[in-house]
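Worked Example 4.2. Consider the chain below.
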Amino acid sequence: MPDEAKPDESPGLVPETEAIRHEIAALLNTKDASGKRIGSRKYAVYAFYDYFGEPIYVGQTKETVGTRIRRHLTNQRTDAVAMSVLDPVEVAEVEIWVLDLEGKDKVEVKRALAAAEYTVFRQVLDASKLKFVLNEKDIAATDQIELPQSYRRRIVPSPIYEARQHRDIRIAQRAETIADLANLTVRSPTGID
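Applying the procedure from the previous section yields the following structure tokens:
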């Protein structure tokens, strides 16, 4: 089956959501060095960045890149979203490193993904002003490796980006996220809220 671009399958959504999904589709439809869509590739490491270019999440995938990225960013079930570590509304940019691991055994794939994820984690952490990345679990230290070319794109188009980047909006969004986290983690000793 030829490597065909997937359309932006988002009819009937709010215009803001539709515009963001369109940008996500454009990123995933980007062709890599081998001429394949990066969204159709199976193995990758990815990083999400907030509205100020700060890294907020680093992950890896053994399923198609498009499936994994869309699940995170459309608030579908992922551990990071379920644990309220990753708020998809906070993601302004995505960067993807596609790994060519076809034909490798499971142990080699696991090792390569772990090394690439740790390398990306160190790279984005070192470049961060805050020196912090919000992952649901620690990324195990490994030897760092040379990474392939990355593909990075802002997924929130103008003027949505400029509006969401405003300090008041960011503070309100973060306060809501913190309140949601507090509601999930703080329970009275009797179990009655």
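Confidence is low (pLDDT under 50) at residues 80-84, 187-193. The radius of gyration is 18 Å. Compare this with Example 4.1 before moving on.
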